[in-house]
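Box 4.2: Ligand-aware structure prediction
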Amino acid sequence: MRSKVLLWPKRPTPLLYYQLLHHPPVYYHAYYNTSSTSTTTTHHTVPPPAPKTPSPAPLSALPTRTFLRSLLFTSVMASPLLKPCLSLLKYMVDSNSLLFSPAKNPVVNYLLRRTIYDHFCAGINEREVRNTVQEMKSLGFKGVILGYARESIAKVEDVDRIQSAEEKQEALDRAVEEWRVGTLRTLGMCGRGNYLAVKFTGAGPAAVEALSRGDRVPPPRIQEAMMEICDAVAAQGSRVWIDAEQQIFQGAIDAWAVDLMRKYNRVNRADAPVVLNTYQAYLKSSTARLNEHLQLAQREGWAMGVKLVRGAYIAHDHRDRIHDTKADTDRNYDHIVESLITRQYPLGGEPGQPFPKVRLFVASHNGVSVRKACALYRQRAQSGLPLIPVEVGQLQGMADEVSLGMVEGSTDGAAPGVFKCLAWGSTEECLHFLLRRAVENQSAMERTRDTARALRGEAWRRLGGGSVM
Ligand SMILES: Cc1cc2nc3c(=O)[nH]c(=O)nc-3n(C[C@H](O)[C@H](O)[C@H](O)COP(=O)(O)OP(=O)(O)OC[C@H]3O[C@@H](n4cnc5c(N)ncnc54)[C@H](O)[C@@H]3O)c2cc1C
């Protein structure tokens, strides 16, 4: 219910931020996750949930410091200031100058760390990352997805310039080894019940070359490293998801991921699926690809792990293979979610057909899609209909009003578990990741404005002023 309608000033004064920082919100409280593990069993029916009154202010769960940083950042990202900030960040990413490089100038490093880095990244070492993971859990998130932001230092062009075959092989192997060690270290930080995020191109030029050739199996060292990583993931009681990338790599990524699902997702394993593959709904071929993999899973007796995204490479990829309009992508995304949750096989086909074991992760900042998925899941849970395990998640620093709204609605155990996806690494290692987040916010300006609006509303609520339009 709206008590009073107030407008947030175009330029919030330092006094306003000070007031927010030093007068903690009247309604401040943290949500503690009491959700059961009900989403982990296929063909499982969830007991009808107790009726629940949703909170009108999910962002009230954010600690004041985090809230203020989000308010500041999202306001900048939703304003004309984003463009010059983006140019400065781009300059820093490639800069070697004493003045602008965060690797060389400790002041620049500190400023970046305390601002954009803290907003989007989990920490530079294990202690910081563990603290962030703990913070997320205390906000009510079921868990986190953790990825190492460092990208391979070795580039295909650099390795190609090496004359000696032996030295070239050494450079390729070194990049794979750094990736293996970094990924296992990341797994160690994320703990039981959480997800590890893996990007195959992170393994360096050997992976990039094999993926762009469309090799159906990875080079032996990468294959061995992946098996070691998946064994460790399963032993720890975690899951791993394989990121989707540009289309030139995607055919091979799917083949490598299906091989891992075949090995680690056998239906008779209680923890299956351990491995999830990513499907990009903006691709016109995504439904056919999913059907093909569902069929394989059904025939060969393994569980499908599906992480569904819209797709992040629209600006650089074959445009004709991507849905013509945003509305088409949205429709396809929601259709895939609905078909999987209602166990239609093939997708959009008749419900009631034998359905393979599937786990779905709805990875999106789009509040409409996420809420639709959660409502459908809840409706089936309340009607005692068969369910597949479903989880939802957003990136750290993005769409907190969506994430926390879902957390609020998930505490009765009849809704999907909510996750935050975190990246860790030093300020320099995270620069490319940070740049991508800033660019993403620029291209999804409407959504960023929605988040900024929700944060301004929360600011007024904390000041006791009522809701904002
Ligand atoms: C936890 C998490 C993990 C992710 N992992 C991956 C990954 O592994 N690989 C990957 O590629 N992406 C990944 N993404 C990013 C994702 O693909 C989207 O780019 C991003 O989340 C924005 O889409 P959205 O669903 O959040 O919502 P929205 O903001 O509603 O959708 C924006 C998206 O719609 C699509 N779109 C925009 N304009 C058009 C148009 N004119 N025609 C057709 N389609 C259009 C694009 O995909 C664009 O990114 C991930 C996102 C999250 C939250």
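In the box above, the bound molecule is flavin-adenine dinucleotide. Strands lie at 5-6, 143-148, 195-198, 239-242, 275-280, 304-309, 358-363, 390-395, 417-424, 467-468.
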